[in-house]
Amino acid sequence: MATLETNNDKRSDSYFGGKSGNGTYQTIINQIPLHYTRVSLFGGMLGVERKLKSADREFVFELNEKLIQRYENNFGFEVNRYEQDKDWQYKNAACYPGKTAFLADTLKVLPYFCYPELWDRKGVFFYVDPPYLLDSRKDNRPVYKHELSDEQHRDLIQQLSLFQSADIAISCYPNEMYQDWFWDHEHPREWRMIEFQSTTRHGMATEQLWMNYPPPKELHDYRYLGGDFRERERITRQKKRLLNKFKKLSPLEQAGLSQAMQDHLCPPEPLEKERILNKLRK
Q1: Half-sphere exposure of 28 (CA within 13 A, CB side)
Q2: pTM for the full model?
Q3: Tens digit of pLDDT for each residue in 198-210?
Q4: Reduced to 3 states, what is the DSSP secondary structure of residue 52?
């Protein structure tokens, strides 16, 4: 989450509302589809993003100068500080290579993301982790330098619901505003939600993840498969055993097995297969 004022800002694990706790980031990553461009709104300490495999392009938007400096010094981001008279940069930013962090107010720049030829397109994934609604927290006292009002939350989810092609995931605590908006209104894409338990400073809490896409058939990162620690450990051991067996095969056996797995997972369409064969016959 974003913009916390704290004297203990040196440890990412202690960041209020962070997602780097065991069981939290794994659950979220297991819902993230394959993508080539990743956009993180309300970056915070990037608890999910730092655990996730890199994308071709990564963008973070954050309003806290201290966090922006940390992205630059510790996480390898190039920093671009937002200037009110240079709004055009967000139209061009989608083509920036590598990792770019913007010192910017997400709500002010969000309208620029709706350009279908730039940001709102397939292969682009938005992870949105705003300061949660005050009324949804166990302790509803403000803790962030830049909190969001109820009106700003409405503006945020209304703008995000306009996207037609980009995949979007939003973290929050259970609240009526999000549920009413995503389930009781018509949107260009159908929204779904999962709930899971997360450890916080005030004990266990129920987290929600709202998504405008169906359960992904292909993940961006498979390293955290499993519903809990024991299942993840079992899958990890299984992958290691299979990989060790694969390594013991000859190169031709490895190639043959790889081809068989590829054909099994992605068999060519009959028409495409016939087209290829006809081309080879010529």
Answers
A1: 30
A2: 0.80
A3: 876 667 889 999 9
A4: coil
Q: What is the rounded CA–CA span in Å between residue 111 and residue 10?
A: 33
pLDDT digits (tens, 9 = 90+) for 21-49: 777 899 999 999 999 999 999 998 899 99
Q: Which residue in this structure is represented by tokens 């064969």?
A: 277
DSSP 79: E
**Is 180 within 8 Å of 210 (Cβ atoms)?**
no
Is residue 3 within 8 A of residue 67, CB to CB? The reply is yes
pLDDT tens-digit series, residues 114-138: 666 678 889 999 999 999 998 888 7
Report the C-alpha gap between 235 and 230 in whole angstroms: 9
HEC sequence for 191-238: CEEEEEEEEECCEEEEEEEEECCCCCCCECCCCCCCCCHHHHHHHHHH
pLDDT single digits (tens) 233-266: 887 888 888 888 888 889 888 888 888 877 776 6
Q: Where are the beta strands (DSSP E) in 11-109?
A: 37-41, 57-62, 78-81, 98-103
Q: Which phi and psi (to 5°) does residue 125 adopt?
A: -120, 130
Asked whether 120 and 166 are in contact (CB, 8 A), the reply is yes
Residue with tokens 């060790």: 244
- DSSP structural state of residue 147: -
User: In angstroms, rounded to a whole number, what is the distance separating the alpha carbons of residues 6 and 3?
Assistant: 9
| Cβ 40 vs Cβ 8: under 8 Å | no
- Residue pair 98/10 in contact (Cβ under 8 Å)? The answer is no
Contacts of 129 (CB under 8 A, 6+ apart): 1, 2, 17, 19, 40, 41, 42, 43, 44, 48, 170, 171
Q: How far apart are CA 239 and CA 233, in angstroms?
A: 10
